[in-house]
Every structure is written in structure tokens, then in C-alpha cells.
Specification:
heterodimer, A: 9 helices, elongated
Chain lengths: 268, 315
């Protein structure tokens, strides 16, 4: 382990995950507690590490409490892509023929839409809110996952042990669920990890545009959207949450690449 | 060669048709009732006079059988009629046509910036022998793809418009108002181009012919920028379609950050108002642009890569 950036990324992600689950470990301050006497205090003001916002809420505690909704939404998005992609890819790869063609052409068409526009169209149908935004981002990601899953299912299905299971009388769904499915998940697990950073970005972008968590939620995207109104007088309201968001995404991308590299290195 | 073009053209038309159909299914069939969706915000709970809803349904034709609606909307779309906005009653086609030039200019300039920046980073990152500079340049793309576009835009506005007062913060007037949005939008694209090209350059640099050229005494500069670049550029050209699609999607965010009028702003308004005909037009437009750019790239391949010419003639 001579890679300091990987260790830094791991630390950053652990901190973000810990803040998502146990925000009270990082701050005793209520992220919604207003303080009219301390409005728009710059970072470094006594008691306010990152300063305060337009109604005197502590920016540091808002960022800590924002980790939960921001990361949870990205997890939901990845989960939707993963489950949808795994199912479609499994069915397409295992049954082949017309089923395969239909599912894969469907995936091609999904991939021909600009991702953000398609996600917005889905939000227009589902309605607003962080869970709906996350679901929309997840649905958009299904096609990519399905492609990767399908090609792995094709590879695994042609292995001798799968054939052996079929020949020795296992029912088709046993073969599918006990042999093909678990052995085909590897590549899309890696893909899910690689897509996590992108999911955080997509969700926060849609949230920034006003489709996600409504204020006063401390979710990072909507927090920046509100802070935008004070860009000139209080730069920290946009700069600091955005910087944290960027650092988390950079770390997520760095970690998933490192893990991906380790796996590829190990199998080589 | 001719059959290759015809086949590829046919595919493109088919994908656009499928994209239109899918968007129709998503926006008009799945929600059940677009009029209710629009007036309750999809979240239900608002009480609206049922008679008024019925009148709207009849006015926009949502009371007809779904397949009937599909056919009439599709034939309308083929003749350039995308229906009317549920919110303003204006024809969607003219609203889009008015906004399209602004967005296309932005996307076009961003594309130039993205390709230019990506080229510089990848070419010099793989060329330089100064170790820290190399690490720095080749590390940039990974950071570029991780930055939230809306945040980068806000930071640039604050720095260049409010602190240094060099460029306008918002609006559509003049070339100057285009610079910051275009740079903001270009960054993730530049990172993507840089990433693909750097990887491809590094791969090509270890090809035997590069060693031969070195042994023959060709200048390192000539090998790097002429020969290696030419064959390494092809994978980078492949991502152009996705790149343009991402720029179109990203323009929504950037136009919102810089308060520019254009397709992006129309999209945000339409989604907020559940104005489904406008949303559909935007999504289909995005798909059409992606398909057309991919088609152009595919048709240009044989010009870029002589090896493909014979392959296509044979195939």
C-alpha cells in the first residue's frame, strides 16, 4: 500500500459514511436550529467552523447531516440500476433468442437518450422528492448494467459446471438462480461501485435544479441551490458544501478504481 | 460502402422511432392521466374540479384511445408538429425552435473547448518526461469527471463576475456571456476526452512500430504528435456521440446556473410544471442529436482509419 491517494479516499469515504449513519458523532448542533443573532457569519467565527447561513444555521452541522440523504439517494439509485440491470441481463443472456434481442434493443434505445434528460423526464412522471429523483437516476442506469450482466451470463452459461448442473437433472430455475446468477454478479458489482460517484453527481444535480429534497433539507444539492442566492455576500454557503461533495465523489471514484484494479490484477 | 451507409442510416431512423415510442410510453401511458399528473404534480392530493379536468382532457385529446393518440402524435411529429404546451398553449415546435440556437451555440463552443482541453491534457501528459507534471496532467481527468457542474459554474461566476468583474454573470447577450457557461459545461467532457485519449496514447506508445520508428531515429516529437496521435485518436472519436449527448444534458444545469434562456431552461420549467408534451420533445430531441452525431462519427471512421475501409468493403 504505497498509494497515499487511496488511503486518503478511504478516509474521506469512511468519514462521509459515518456522518451519514451517526451524524451526532460529528456535531452536537441541530442542523435546523436557527439563530437570528448569528446570520451569515463567515467560516471561522467562534463556534461556527464553516460559518452560518441566511437564518443562522450552522453550516458545518448542515453538511454533516446532509451526508445521509445525499449518500442514501445515491445508494437507492445504484440499487435500482443493479437489480433492474441484473434481472434484465440475466433473462436476456440465459434465454437468448428473441427475448435477448428484445431486451437488448430496449437497452440500446435507453442508451440513446442523454442520461440527465431521461432522468428528468422520469421525474416529470414520478413527481418530485429525493427518492423519486434517485429512482429516476437508477432507471437510467439499468441499460448499462443489463449489457454488462448479459455478457457475463453468456460466458458463465457456457461453462462446464453449468452444463453439468443441467445434464444432471437440475431444473432450469435452479440452474439459473444457484449457478448462473451468483457467478455472473462480479462484473456488475464492480460497475455499481464505479457508478457510485456518478450517481451522487446526478442526484445532486437534479436536486440542485429543484426536483429533489425541498428546503430546509440539508441534502447537498438543494443546500447549494439555496446558497446560490447568497453567492456574493456569503461564498461559503455554496463553496464549502460543493467542495465536500466533490471530495466525496473524487474519493468514491478513486476507491472503486483501486478496487477494480486489484481485482483485475488478481485474476490476471 | 454504399450498403454500409444505407444500413447504418436505416438503423439510425429505427432508433429514433423507438426512442419516440419509448418516450410516448413513459410520458403518456405509464402516468395514466397526463392532465391529472399535471394538475396534481404527480403527488396527488390537490383537489381540482373534475369537470375542468374533463374539458382539458378533451381539449388536448387525452380522452381518446391510447393507440389513437400515439398514431396522431407520431404523424404530427413526423410533420414537425409536436403538439401544444399544456401550460402555455403555445406550439411546442415553435418554443423549441426559438430556444434551440442558444443551446446549440453553447453546446458547440463547449464541444470545441472540451476537445481542445482534452487533447492538450492527454497529448502533453503522455509526452512530458517531467514526472510531477506528467502525474499532474494525467491526474486531471479523474478530478474533472468528479466535479459537480453546477458548483463549478457558481464558483466561476463568483470569481470572474463578482470578484474580478471580468465577465457577465448571467444572460445571453454577446459572446462574453457565453465564455463561462461554455467552460463550465466543457470541463466534464474535456475530462472524458482526456481520459480516453491518454489511455489510448499510452497503449499505442508501446506498439512495436513506435520502437521501430525510434530506432530509425525519428524525432520523438514527430512520432508522438504525428503517428501515435493519429492512430490513438480513433477511440477518442468514438466517444464523441456520448460526449455531445452529455453536453446537451449538462446544458440544462449550466443554463440554469447562468440564467441563460435555451432548451435547458425550457426543460426545467416543463418538468416543474409536468408539461409532458414539452418534456417529450426535449427528450426526443436529445436522442435525435445523439443518433445523428453517432451516425456521422460512424460514417467518418473509414476516412480516419484506412484499415476500416477494406473491412467495410469486404463486410
Amino acid at each position: 500500500m504505497r498509494r497515499p491517494t487511496v488511503i486518503l479516499s478511504l478516509l474521506m469515504l469512511s468519514a462521509a459514511a459515518a456522518a451519514a449513519f451517526w451524524p451526532h458523532l460529528f456535531t452536537q448542533t441541530d442542523p435546523l436550529q436557527t439563530s437570528p443573532a448569528n446570520v451569515l457569519q463567515p467560516p471561522g467565527t467562534a463556534g461556527y467552523l464553516f460559518g452560518t447561513d441566511q437564518v443562522g444555521r450552522d453550516l458545518y452541522s448542515r453538511i454533516v447531516y446532509g451526508a445521509g440523504p445525499s449518500l442514501l439517494a445515491a445508494m437507492i439509485a445504484i440499487a435500482v440500476s443493479f437489480v433492474g440491470g441484473a434481472l434484465l441481463g440475466l433473462v436476456a443472456g440465459y434465454f437468448g433468442g428473441k427475448t435477448d434481442t428484445a431486451i437488448m434493443r430496449f437497452a440500446d434505445v435507453l442508451l440513446s437518450f442523454p442520461t440527465l434528460l431521461l432522468a428528468m423526464a422520469i421525474v416529470a412522471v414520478l413527481g418530485f422528492g429525493l427518492v423519486n429523483v434517485a429512482t429516476a437516476v437508477g432507471v437510467v442506469g439499468i441499460a448499462g448494467m443489463a449489457r454488462v450482466m448479459r455478457s457475463e451470463v453468456l460466458r458463465v452459461s457456457s461453462q462446464t459446471y453449468v452444463e453439468a448442473a443441467g445434464v444432471s437433472g437440475a431444473r432450469w430455475w435452479t440452474v439459473l438462480l444457484r449457478h448462473v446468477l451468483p457467478n455472473s454478479l462480479g462484473p456488475i458489482v464492480v460497475l455499481a461501485a464505479l457508478e457510485f460517484g456518478t450517481a451522487i453527481l446526478s442526484v445532486s444535480s437534479l436536486s440542485f435544479l429543484g426536483f429533489g429534497a425541498p428546503p430546509p433539507s440539508p441534502e447537498w444539492g438543494s443546500q447549494i441551490a439555496v446558497g446560490r442566492n447568497y453567492l456574493v455576500s456569503a461564498w461559503w454557503l455554496t463553496a464549502i458544501p460543493g467542495l465536500i461533495l466533490a471530495l466525496v465523489v473524487i474519493s468514491a471514484n478513486r476507491m472503486s478504481r483501486a478496487v477494480d484494479g486489484e481485482i483485475k490484477g488478481a485474476t490476471r | 460502402m454504399k450498403s454500409f451507409v444505407a444500413k447504418r442510416l436505416g438503423q439510425a431512423v429505427l432508433v429514433v422511432f423507438a426512442a419516440y415510442t419509448l418516450s410516448f410510453l413513459l410520458l403518456y401511458v405509464i402516468p395514466g392521466d397526463p392532465v391529472v399528473a399535471m394538475y396534481t404534480g404527480g403527488d396527488a392530493g390537490h383537489a381540482v374540479d373534475p369537470a375542468a379536468l374533463q374539458r382539458l382532457r378533451e381539449e388536448f385529446g387525452f380522452d381518446r384511445p391510447i393507440f389513437d393518440q400515439y398514431l396522431s402524435r407520431l404523424s404530427g411529429a413526423l410533420t414537425g408538429d409536436f403538439g401544444v404546451s399544456l401550460k402555455t398553449g403555445e406550439p411546442v415546435a415553435s418554443v423549441m425552435a426559438a430556444a434551440l440556437p442558444q443551446t446549440l451555440t453553447l453546446v458547440g463552443l463547449s464541444l470545441v473547448f472540451a476537445v481542445g482541453l482534452g487533447l492538450i491534457v492527454a497529448l502533453f501528459g503522455t509526452y512530458t518526461r517531467i514526472s510531477w507534471l506528467r502525474q499532474f496532467l494525467l491526474g486531471l481527468p479523474a478530478i474533472g469527471v468528479s466535479l459537480p457542474t453546477f458548483w463549478v459554474g457558481l464558483m466561476l461566476v463568483n470569481l470572474f463576475s463578482f470578484q474580478l468583474r471580468m465577465l457577465p454573470a448571467i444572460g445571453n447577450v454577446g459572446l462574453q456571456s457565453l465564455i463561462l457557461p461554455a467552460i463550465t459545461l466543457a470541463l466534464p467532457g474535456a475530462a472524458a476526452v482526456g481520459q480516453v485519449l491518454a489511455k489510448s496514447m499510452l497503449g499505442t506508445l508501446s506498439e512495436p512500430y513506435v520502437a521501430t520508428e525510434k530506432a530509425m531515429g525519428l524525432a520523438r516529437r514527430t512520432i508522438h504528435f504525428r503517428d501515435v496521435f493519429r492512430s490513438a485518436a480513433i477511440p477518442a472519436v468514438t466517444v464523441t456521440g456520448v460526449l455531445v449527448a452529455n453536453l446537451i444534458g449538462g446544458s440544462v444545469v449550466v443554463e440554469s446556473v447562468f440564467s441563460r434562456s435555451g432548451i435547458g431552461q425550457i426543460t426545467v420549467q416543463a418538468v416543474l410544471a409536468h408539461d409532458l408534451p414539452v418534456v417529450q420533445a426535449v427528450v426526443v430531441l436529445g436522442a435525435v442529436i445523439f443518433v445523428v452525431v453517432s451516425l456521422i462519427v460512424d460514417l467518418l471512421y473509414p476516412l480516419l482509419d484506412p484499415r476500416l475501409r477494406t473491412a467495410i468493403v469486404k463486410g
